[in-house]
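Appendix B. Extra example for self-study. Work through it before the problem class; the solution is given directly after the inputs so you can check yourself.
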Amino acid sequence: MTIDQKTVAKIANLARLKIPVDEQIAVGGELNKILDWVAQLNEVDVAGVEPLANPNDAHLRLRADVITDGGKPADILANAPSKTADFFTVPKVIE
Amino acid sequence: MTKLTDLTITEAVAGLAAKKFSAVELTDAHLAAMERPDARGMNIFTLETPDIARAQAKQSDARRAAGQAGDMDGIPLAIKDLYCTKGVRTTAASRILDNFVPTYESTVTQKLFDAGAVMLGKVNMDEFAMGSGGVTSAFKPTISPWSGPNPAAAARHLVPGGSSSGSSASVAARLAMGATGTDTGGSIRQPASVTGTVGIKPTYGRCSRYGIIAFASSLDQAGPITRSVADAALMMRVMAGFDEKDSTSIDTPVPDYVAALGGSVKGMKIGIPREYRIDGINPETDALWQKGAQMLRDAGAEIIDITLPHTKYALPVYYIIAPAEASSNLARYDGVRFGLRMPGENLNDMYAATRFAGFGKEVRRRILIGTYVLSAGYYDAYYRKAQRVRRLIRNDFLDAFKQCDAILTPASPGTAFAIGEKQDDPLQMYLEDVFTVTLNLAGLPGICVPVGVAQNGLPMGLQLIGRAFDEATLFTAAAALEKAAMFNAKPAFTA
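Solution. Structure tokens for the complete assembly:
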């Protein structure tokens, strides 16, 4: 399995990372090296083995469905790079 | 009298209780050491907080005078810059967080402050805890105090390990009495091993992850780095415990780890996993491991051979699961709500420009790998497959613990390497975690204890692995190993 320049551009877009075109080939090479190395997992027979997502296999705890937090617009906006009143502001979205 | 900065936490707690010195005096001694140019030359602190430290120390003395001193009252600590601290800049050593000032406190730091601890400052690390040498930090890399009497002026700048590089360096250099660290693949234990300090990664779910900036959520754990096993036990007792704010926190009692120190290893079964004798193992590492086994045998433990057959697959599994979780966790850095924002023509462009400028090379590499293994068409082949092998790795440990009470292994492949080494090839850097990463995948606790000094004069540690939530047995065994090893080497630089 090889990651070519086109694949790098595709996953960079999925990850919202602006990788410059002249770096894409080099990045692809690095990723290929890592993927070739992890390919040794193909040696392992995992037939019938359930995936383990969490080391304690724990079921997530449930709590009462009540509001426990909120009403902190000042805290939430405290680190905003750009804001107006109680809103975050971003570049224009509508084309 | 011993210099205040040379005391262990345990000794300092006794000294404060006996009114031999005050918390203000103890904190001032550490602040004075931190502020020396040769100490600052090591790039340990990302932010010094002397005003907070002095205020906390003053309050500590007042509490003690009123007979209300906590378990760690007046003890000056360094806090890894991955822990959110209310009103104090927190960076994860990344440009993307810019001047992020949390409006909340992490549960673990809150517990430490509730017990009376003093914060000297925030310390350096690999960016988002991704690295094994501290060299991926957006700040200058931390230089180990083992590099020379004036580490910054030394011919070779050694790393203090990573990712908790500032934590291990501050404690080894006697600039802090203890430090918080975090461990996702070895980031507490490997830095402890290469700096001659003690570091424990508790069981997954033992310490709250609330307010600790996430790297890989099914692997991350908080833990202390200290200069003695007793100090680690004391600090762990404060840091551990159930927290409603962390959905993976486990509601189970925290034993008295300090009481466990006095236990005996007589009759304890210690497993030696043959798969950890990897090809090309450093002969000194191997010899130290055998020496450590002999020490525990002499103390009355029974040493048995065990097998952990899927060990060699742990690193490849880790380098699928950790980047996958990281790519998901780090999606939140979008330039909208906090941190850095770069200009862009439209929203998507702004996201992509911000994230490229804000993340360093290693972090970008892991985000891309993680995005790839989670993308349509590759999810089953990589991510699901890695999760299945992860279960086999955990099952290996469950089987082994039917025969033994704890497992002894090396903690790092060799001694500290130099800044600049292992940086051209990411796979070389990844191998630093070969002995530690298995525990994160299995969720088990592990402690690194300094046991010897290599021919190059640098410290080497060994790792003890325990059953889930059985840190108490680890502290018993670690205390026995520490007692037998009599490790007393000091870095070339100390405060």
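Self-check: The longest helix of chain B spans residues 379-400. If your reasoning did not lead you there, revisit section 3.
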